[in-house]
Structures are given as structure tokens and as C-alpha cells.
Design goal:
Layout (H helix, E strand, L loop, with lengths): L4 H12 L8 H16 L3 E7 L5 E6 L2 H13 L3 H8 L3 E3 L10 H9 L4 E9 L2 E10 L7 H23 L3 H29 L3 H15 L3 H10 L4 H5 L7
Antiparallel strand pairs: 1-2, 1-5, 3-4, 4-5
Helix pairs in contact: 1-2, 2-6, 3-5, 7-8, 7-9
């Protein structure tokens, strides 16, 4: 599998368009994992980010299955994304079934989620590593070197954006912003469940509707999620959001 130059350019343009002074970090990282799936041809993508205490947190996932796999890594302290973060190098596993000795718990969980291969890339700028990007595939097989290179470039773009945001602010503000971002992720997850129940749809579809409505109405995703959770959002308007591909 190879990545076309045009698709790669489109991905970088789409991500770059969100890099404004007050960009929504959760929305940006959600766009990043979506770009990985669309451009790299993987089944799903997930992202872990370190907080001010040095603790990794799940901050973005393209599917519920990827989110489960990422959370399982964190809960069991094992997995390719953790290794990529701690080692600062890519961890490429074309056959998860053959890695059961290395990550026994993660391999079982990933297989249960439908994944057969995973490629983990560090979010690194020189000597600073702030997280890891996981690329999941439903079929065994290695990504070709060019695809891995583009995936690492996407991870680098996110790393630079996050570090740029942090360096432009005082340390205590950074801590508050990161905690707010993690709190926002919790709100978004809650809103996905609420909307899925109200609309009798899947959590994946409800998340797509949330994001599209937030973009169309210029409302921060976390603010919209909070309104869905507390019942003040107009669910009918969210459901009527144009669902054509962005």
C-alpha cells in the first residue's frame, strides 16, 4: 500500500488549517486520527498524549475499537504505543499474533477488537517525546516505508503544534489547558453515548454528527458536547446535520 502525493498534501493542508492561535486541541487530534485512516489506508488510529505528571492519556481514536485497544494498553501498562513513547522510536508489528510473548494482554485485546497488525509511531521533536500514534490494521502485513514515513510526518505535525501551544503559555496555564482537554474528551465520550441513545444510532455515527454540527455552527466541540449531556442542545438540529463527506 502506498500513499499518493496528492492525498498526503490534502491531509497536511487540512491539518494546517486548524493551527490557529486558539485551536481546539481535541478537535485537532480527532482530525489527525481521521487523516491517518483516510491517507494511510489503515483500519483505525489512536493517540496517547502525556500530561504534566508524565502520565499517558488516551486523547483521540478514530473508532470505538481503537479507543478500547488504547485504553487497554494504559490499563495493563503494555503495548506498542507505550513502547514507542518510552523508546522514542517506531514500533512496527505486521503480525500481532506473533507478538503474544511481548504484549500478551494487549494482543488478546487487539485481536478481540478485530486488529491483526499495528504500527506505533512516537510523537517526538528532537529529544522530547509527548505521546504516541497507533495505526491499526484488520489484516496482517507491514506498511510500506513510504506510508510509515508519511504517518510519522503527521505525528510530527501534531507534536510541533502541541509543543508550540505549550511554549507560548506559562506552565500553570499549560497544565490547566491539558486538563481541560482531557475533561473535554470525557464530555465528548458522554455526549456520543447520549446522542446515540437519543437518535437510536451508533456511537461512531453520533460522533460524526457532533463534529459536523460543531464545525458547521462554529461551536467548540467540547461546548457542544456539554450541551448534549446537560440536555440544552437541540438534538433535532444535530441529527439534521449534512452527513456528506467533509
Amino acid at each position: 500500500m502506498t500513499v499518493s502525493d496528492q492525498r498526503a498534501r490534502e491531509a497536511f493542508v487540512a491539518l494546517s488549517s486548524t493551527l490557529v492561535d486558539d485551536f481546539d486541541i481535541i478537535d485537532f487530534l480527532d482530525r489527525l486520527v481521521d487523516c491517518c485512516v483516510e491517507v494511510l489506508g489503515v483500519t483505525a488510529a489512536g493517540l496517547l498524549l502525556v500530561d504534566h505528571r508524565g502520565t499517558l492519556n488516551m486523547v483521540a481514536a478514530s473508532t470505538e475499537q481503537a479507543m478500547i485497544a488504547e485504553l487497554f494498553q494504559l490499563q495493563n501498562h503494555e503495548g506498542p504505543c507505550l513502547d514507542a513513547y518510552h523508546g522514542g522510536e517506531a514500533v512496527l508489528c505486521a503480525d500481532l499474533a506473533g507478538a503474544s510473548d511481548r504484549w500478551p494482554n494487549f494482543v488478546r485485546a487487539a485481536a478481540g477488537a478485530g486488529f491483526a497488525a499495528v504500527h506505533a509511531l512516537p510523537m517526538r521533536l528532537r529529544g522530547t517525546v509527548i505521546g504516541g500514534l497507533n495505526l491499526f490494521s484488520a489484516r496482517q502485513g507491514a506498511l510500506d516505508p513510504a506510508t510509515v514515513e508519511v504517518g510519522q510526518a503527521l505525528a510530527n505535525v501534531a507534536t510541533v503544534a502541541i509543543l508550540r501551544q505549550r511554549s507560548a503559555r506559562h506552565g500553570d496555564v499549560v497544565v490547566e489547558e491539558l486538563q481541560a482537554a482531557l475533561d473535554s474528551r470525557i464530555l465528548v465520550e458522554q455526549a456520543k453515548g447520549v446522542l446515540a441513545e437519543r437518535l437510536n444510532t451508533t456511537v461512531e455515527k453520533s460522533f460524526d454528527l457532533l463534529r459536523r454540527y460543531a464545525h458547521a455552527s462554529s461551536v467548540p466541540l467540547a461546548e457542544l458536547a456539554a450541551a448534549v449531556v446537560d440536555g440544552s442542545a437541540d438534538v433535532a438540529l444535530i441529527a439534521a446535520t449534512d452527513v456528506r463527506p467533509a
